[in-house]
């Protein structure tokens, strides 16, 4: 059983650059209100996330650079490592309860575009630390 849903992106490239449709309405849970998009960067070797959510679903897509996304069940019994970024243009859906960490494994800055189906609320962050990647 896979911990996250990985969907290969159809990347259209020409002399101007590239375009990829990362997330559409049919990819998110019907009837759930809009959450939020965010962008985060990481220097080479830096790890981000290393947590899980009890109720939130996230979608990760590295739009520049290369990273290793590690997913784990809470017990640590099941673990997946997914290369993500320019070398493997995918979007990964991370369901509630799946611990996740992402490490920049490239030599340049990594840019992660993410969507979470519930806006961040500092009074109720729904984020529990879980070290899955060093």
What does the model show?
The chain is an all-beta fold and 134 residues long. It has one domain (5-11, 41-129): Sandwich (Jelly Rolls). The protein has strands spanning 5-8, 11-14, 17-20, 36-42, 47-52, 58-64, 66-72, 79-85, 90-94, 99-104, 110-116, 128-129.
Summarize the structure.
Helices cover about 0% and strands about 50% of the residues. The protein has about 130 residues and is mostly beta strands. The two termini are about 25 Å apart.
> What's the assembly state of these chains?
single chain
Nearest-integer average pLDDT: 93
Query: Which CATH class?
Result: Mainly Beta
What is the helix tally? 0
Rg, please? 15 Å
Largest sheet: 5 strands, antiparallel
Strand and helix layout:
Layout: E1 5-8, E2 11-14, E3 17-20, E4 36-42, E5 47-52, E6 58-64, E7 66-72, E8 79-85, E9 90-94, E10 99-104, E11 110-116, E12 128-129
Antiparallel strand pairs: 1-9, 2-3, 4-11, 5-10, 5-12, 6-9, 6-11, 7-8, 7-10
């Amino acid at each position: 059983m896979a911990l996250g849903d990985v969907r290969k992106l159809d990347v259209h490239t020409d002399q101007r650059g590239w375009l990829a449709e990362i997330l559409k309405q049919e990819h998110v849970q019907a009837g759930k209100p809009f959450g939020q998009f965010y962008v985060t960067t990481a220097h080479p070797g830096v790890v981000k996330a290393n947590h899980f959510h009890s109720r939130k679903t996230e979608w990760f897509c590295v739009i520049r650079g290369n990273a290793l996304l590690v997913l784990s069940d809470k017990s640590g019994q099941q673990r997946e490592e997914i290369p993500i970024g320019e070398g493997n243009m995918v979007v990964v859906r991370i369901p509630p309860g799946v611990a996740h960490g992402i490490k920049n494994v490239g030599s340049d800055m990594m840019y992660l575009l993410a969507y979470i189906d519930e806006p961040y609320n500092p009074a109720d962050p729904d984020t529990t630390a879980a070290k899955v990647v060093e």
